[in-house]
Amino acid sequence: MNREQKLRLFRICLAILLIAGIFYSSASGGLLLFLYLIPYLLIGYDVLKRALLGILNREPFDECLLMSIATIGALAIAFLKTGEYTEAVAVMIFYQTGELFEDWAVAKSRKNITSLMDLRPETAGVLNENGEPEAVPAQKVPVGSLIAVKPGERIPLDGIVIEGHSGINTAALTGESLPRDAKPGTLVHSGTINLSGYLKIRTTKSFDDSAASQILELIETAGLRKSRSERFVTRFARIYTPLVVYAALALALLPPLILTALGQSGNWNEWCYRALTFLVISCPCALVISIPLSFFAGIGGASRQGILIKGTAFMEVMANTDAVVFDKTGTLTTGSFEVTDLHSAAGTDKEELLSVLAHAERCSDHPAARAVKKAFGERALRYETSDYREIPGRGVQCRLKELSGSPGKEFAVLAGNQELLQERGILSGGTAVSGTLVHAALDGRYLGYAVISDSLKSGASRGLSALRNCGISRIAMLTGDTEDAARDIAAKLNIKEFYAGLLPEDKLKFLEKIISESKGKVLFAGDGINDAPVLARADAGIAMGGLGTDIAVSAADVVLMDDDPGKIAEAIGISRKCLRIVRENIWFIIGIKAGCLLMGALGLAGMWLAVFADVGVMILAVMNAMRCLFTGRADSPKKNQEQG
Questions:
Q1: What CATH class has 336-455?
Q2: Rounded-to-integer distance, Cα 570 and Cα 593, Å
Q3: CATH class in words for 123-205
Q4: Which residues are catalytically annotated?
Q5: How far is CA 206 from CA 150, 212, 313, in A?
Q6: For the whole model, what pTM was predicted?
């Protein structure tokens, strides 16, 4: 508990002790009222103050005014009629108890979010001219600086590992417990923890632009985008509060006046008591508190899983999703090409084919060449490369001189696509294999080809299966890649609808078509600069936060920090759970209050039932709202029934 919460708890306990002492005292009349005013003012002075400030600021109609009128009126009735002051003071005590419970619930839901402040170390170990780390405020470290991170320390700024090897705990950002490998060339994010090795990192972003700072900014601004349910509650409270005040006033005045006009006893005390009970029951704080708290808790629980939702409105969108559209490269696939197969010609083994290709591509920086060199790895060099020449759009040609076996023997080599070898008369027919193919020929003899593909992300297949299980009726893929590459990935993931060879404006056109044909909301998941217009146009855009560009992350409404497309189904499940709890609370609160209001107006409900209808219902609703904090895997009904 914080200081304010402890003070409120102390006031509650002290007020209860005072009431117990007064209850067993022999005081009566005006003295008894004076004694009861001590615990009443002790526990309720802040409520009375807020009510008075609301009146002075011409915004009187809130729960503080309702509680003030009801309790002061109850004290007046007790003084004039019953002499039972305990009930009136108890109403204020229970109200403050409910407020304390609400503060605790909000604090608990904030815990996952405020703890993110620890993600940002205040200092960074910047290496000086002597190679020694010096502590410098992280906000003052310029981009391009070389920093050192010791084992067990948090990485203060985004950057690329220059030296060292270690495991990185990314759980705070991604929700994943398994550490990730970091070595020279690896991009690392601020807020993650260096587990074992000593790392030297070249910073690529400033403190304010680093991952941890961006996460905090996203969460801090999430509440600015209210959902339809929250906007409904706000409008409802503005109309409802003055309405019940006037209704209570009418209940206190009209029946006694009518009865008096008919020559009967007006029984003013009884009708005033009913009106005051009506006011306590009608207090809308349960609705006003529990609905925003549900969404806030849902956002906090999602952030713990590495899912950053930029506003509660997007939780409502995801809960009503009917279609999900994916980019391919960097979203469903890793975006890094790999040699997935080797097909050698007769008389050539695969090792020889790979060796010739790797030596021929040594000087090329083409993605396919990098994939070949990566597959060859650290094997010993067999040839010396000379007369290297790139043939634009086709491949490379060079000469290879043997370093062992027959030292000095040279070969003419071609390595490239099918068109290159067909032009040189080495290859006559084509191949039916999908993916990027790199063919090789040695002194005019065809050696075979390597299949180079963009590999699927580990969570892609599982993620799409989870989406189908949670009732998503349409899954499509939009990509700028070739038709063959798109068809290959679509077949592996069982995607029936895909469109290839698209420019950004083409993606936007196809997305518009899918939106117009869908009954529910449409999500788009992407990671690149060219995805930004589509991310912004979708009902909710989802960006891959780890690999994704800053522009894509800025344009998106939801960010997946670990680039796992499987988290999309999880985000939908969390949103559906949150919306279901919100609706449960709305119907529960309105139902209980409507019944108790009717009973209060008919004189069947006393102040104790009014306390339950106000504070008791609020506590139950807040406890139900707290379930939104506890998020697991996707909440996946077979059909999307969460229409809102």
A1: alpha beta
A2: 35
A3: mainly beta
A4: 327
A5: 20, 11, 30
A6: 0.62
